[in-house]
Write a structure and sequence with these properties.
The structure holds two protein chains of two kinds. By secondary structure, chain A is mainly alpha-helical. In chain A, 67% of the residues lie in helices and 0% in strands. The longest helix of chain A is centred in the middle third of the chain and has 26 residues. By secondary structure, chain B is of the alpha/beta class. Helices cover 54% and strands 14% of the residues of chain B. In chain B, β4, α7 and β5 form a beta-alpha-beta unit. Chain B starts with 7 loop residues before the first strand and ends with a strand. The chains are: A mainly alpha, B alpha/beta. The interface between A and B is medium-sized, with 31 and 33 residues.
């Protein structure tokens, strides 16, 4: 049985829309609605999976999330620099405490 | 400090052990962030085998399995065709350890950095791999 659908109006960047239309013209999706709907469904699934991880092992500290964002190459959030500096300081202390 | 999207990362043995044991929460937080972004975490099969060999508690092995079963994690099998190159890398940089050499090969093939400890990072860097240090 097909999922219930609702028609909505969205606003998007012209350049992105142009790429979406090109993808549809190339046969990568049946139409613009299908393309956008698939993209949204993928994001919803990713966020649900991330929530499942958080429920199993979280909540994660701001410090660990700051490091994770840096390692993943995700733009930092406010305060991340402070946590990353703490991590560096911990690492330096660990190095200096290690026997030569 | 890099802020460009990496799209993927490769794990070394201590990083995977950290994820399984929860010794710190860094690796588990990393899985959450990578999942949210739709990125990939590559785990060479030899890295997983070596990590499993160092875990003794069934609960930790179950967590290792759960981590690796995540849709974000891609396990990279050991191909017979790569055996010689892995052997050379292992002898040259990791005192014969195949798991680290397999991780280097994965970083070279995909252009992704490896998550390594500060103790093991010099070996990866000497082998030409970019290494992100596990706190």
């Amino acid at each position: 049985m097909a999922a219930k659908t609702t028609k909505v109006t969205i606003t998007m960047d012209d350049g992105v829309l142009e790429r979406v239309r090109a993808a549809v013209a190339a046969g990568h999706a049946a139409n613009v609605s299908s393309y956008i709907s698939d993209a949204a469904a993928q994001r919803v699934a990713r966020e649900a999976n991330a929530e499942e991880i958080e429920q199993r092992w979280g909540p994660f500290s701001p410090k660990s999330m700051a490091w994770a964002r840096k390692a993943a190459g995700v733009p930092p959030e406010p305060g991340d620099d402070t946590y990353l500096a703490e991590i560096e300081a911990d690492r330096a202390a660990h190095r200096s405490a290690r026997p030569a | 400090m890099s802020t460009s999207a990496v799209a993927g990362l490769v794990l070394d043995v201590p990083a995977l052990i950290d994820a399984a044991t929860g010794r710190t929460e860094y690796m588990r937080a990393l899985l959450a962030v990578m999942t949210q972004q739709g990125y990939t975490i590559a785990v060479p099969s030899t890295v997983r085998a070596r990590a499993a060999g160092q875990l003794t508690a069934p609960a930790q092995l179950a967590e290792l399995d759960w981590f690796c079963a995540s849709g974000t994690v891609l396990e990279i099998p050991l191909a017979a065709a790569d055996a010689a190159e892995i052997d050379y890398l292992a002898k040259d940089h990791f005192a014969g350890e195949a798991a680290a050499a397999h991780a280097v090969l994965a970083t070279r093939r995909r252009g992704w950095p490896v998550i390594a400890t500060s103790e093991r990072a010099p070996g990866f860097r000497a082998a030409g791999a970019a290494a992100e240090l596990l706190p």
